[in-house]
Design a protein that fits this description.
heterotrimer; A alpha+beta (395); B alpha/beta (177); C alpha/beta (168); A: 395 residues; alpha+beta; Cytochrome-c3 Hydrogenase, chain B; 3-stranded antiparallel sheet; 14 helices; 47% helix; 14% strand; disordered N terminus; C: 168 residues; Beta Polymerase, domain 2; 5-stranded mixed sheet; two-stranded parallel sheet; 7 strands; 21% helix; 26% strand; globular; disordered C terminus; binds iron/sulfur cluster
Amino acid sequence: MSFEPLGENRFIVPIGPQHPALKEPGHFEFVVDGEIVTGASVRLGYVHRGIEKGAEDRTWIQNLYLMERICGICSHIHATAFVQGVEKLAGVEAPPRARAIREVFAELERIHSHMLWLGVAAHEGGFDALFMYSWRDREVVMDMLEMLSGNRVHYSANLIGGVKYDLNPEMMDKIRDGLNYLEERLAHYLDVVNHDETFIGRTRGIGTMTREQAQLLGAVGPTARASNFAFDVRVDAPYAAYAEFPVEMVVAQEGDLHARFVVRILETMESIRVLRRIFDNLPESELVTRVPRRIPAGETISRVEAPRGELFYFIASSGGEKPERVKVRTPSLCNWGTVITLAVGHKLADMPMILAGIDPCFSCNDRLVMVKRNHQDPQVWTWADLRNYGIEYYR
Amino acid sequence: MGLEVSKPWQQALDKIRTWARVNSPWAIHFNSGSCNGCDIEILATLTPRYDVERFGIKLQGSPRHADVLICTGPVSLQAKDRLLRIYWQMPEPKFVIAVGSCGLSGGVFHGCYNIVKGIDEVLPVDVFVPGCPPRPEAIIYGVAVLLEALKSGKRPERTMTVELPAGFEKPQAEVRQ
Amino acid sequence: MSSLEETLQRAENLLQPYGQSFNRPELNRLDVYLQRENLLAAVQALLEARWGYLSTITGIDRPSAAVEEGQTPTEGEIEVLYSFCSGAAVVSLRVRAPYSDAALPSICPLIPSATLGERELMEMFGVKVEGTPDTSRLILADSWPEGVYPLRKSFVPAARFSGEAKGG
Ligand code: SF4
């Protein structure tokens, strides 16, 4: 449980720059003693672009598009957190239909994100078939998002004071069909995760985190809920339309990697259920309310539940056209802290799965890994080497 | 390079090289500080709906095996060094595809302090794929455009000098183009 | 709603000995202004009572008077918010440190995961966090100059965002 800087004998894993589904590339340094990891530290900043500073130079509306592009996987939820904060400062509330539509996008995004993660995490463990299947099925959600907004990734559904896109009955029917298919597939994945022997062998009892640890380390989202640390902003502090269309919180007791898989799959199913409920009772109203161009001075905190956990925005306005300060704390940042601690005491071979298990948004491409064991010369490994090493180790 | 160009077998060899290159380009993907939007779309091209492997395009890990560098993001200061390193590690001939608006000009991150503003500030880019993010089809099309240019030998000469990252030695044996 | 009120009230009672002043800016929020000497004790009080979890550490630059661009700023302060969440309730411990003595005690001994937030504070605001275990660079590039803190208001990026589309 220490974050001490590392000494001489280190095994450096720059999980970094090169891979596809990565949100906050980090550079990890692991100290290894034989097979066992005895220490870890992290270096971020490969995707640091200076957004918080950039936000101070842009108007409220321009910022909306900037915030959306903090992350391509959770773009809607970033924008939602931002507009909700701004709306609070301006003292307006989005109309009920707009709030419901925000929830629709948020839940569709959650489904896409969790399926993406399922594939990536499976890939890290060498279960490539599952990777391909879950990404194939994920395209169904991408189609829905494209149908609603015209774009597959940055849907830009939010406006300050409401949303841009409306839902019509044909769209809802199409989405319902898609959801039925997905529900079936998810039930199948749940079955695989729970019953496939090799899968269980690589996930049960690995990377276990107790509830106390989760709380102390500040774990958030599904990672925390898998350790029975039950909090979910959607339930605890309902925003958008979560008060009218509540979701059930999914928690698990075990706290291991397996529990993280199960929690995420069950959460996806819960999203499907709540989407159906919204479609059946979508409130009627206009889509936007008027918001002044200058936002009154003040400070606010806006919290939402992103697919990876609690997303925290602090927004300060000095009464002008531009914000005074925007602070964004993404869920992955919290979960890095848990990895540093979780890694200690585990086998090197488990690292890819443990890292993938918190869903820090990184996946299957190549990263360079330097291995320096005890007093040997440092070796350079690629991430693929480490991954293969992990797969071979369990063969 | 100049000596043996005229030899017929050399010409034949060149043809075979181009044929092989065009039929199965290996690509490496690098995120230089992007928001991931482009990256998940690149990954999506690998998966069953789009499946670029059926065209012989393979996304793989090591820069030393790659012909094409598919790069996203506005190039953050911290990632710049890594990007250069990867570029230098790739064997000649090598090609760069810049994917996404922010790889083209900095896009939405324009004016942020920690970016270089576009991949073409750092590397000679062969193909630009605009979009935020571009659809997977657009990315595949970008690769196809590159291959077309290779096949017809219409690739423009590169004049840009690429910076060497600190502590990196220029590879000795430059393979002939 | 009453349970939200209770939660906040409980926090207020816990922090009573340490806070200088208390403020309720929003229904679900409690701001507690502290002297930095009392920061650790206040965090300890919340932890011992198992009140919520540390959600984030936010820094804000507060230059004193209005400073013209390019002029040297006069003595300002860095304000730091330690936000704790419990359900819908958010308690922010607010401390201030003047530029000339921009230092705060580390809360890592109590909450190890605060390390990332504290490292960010050091890099982006130039606040010295005394006793934080890891002081290596976390976010900024290796080539970033020492002593330049991008989130201070006095820092102006070379190429600013103008908001106008480029012509031609
Ligand atoms: S172009 Fe758009 S989607 Fe692509 S990385 Fe940049 S911001 Fe993200």
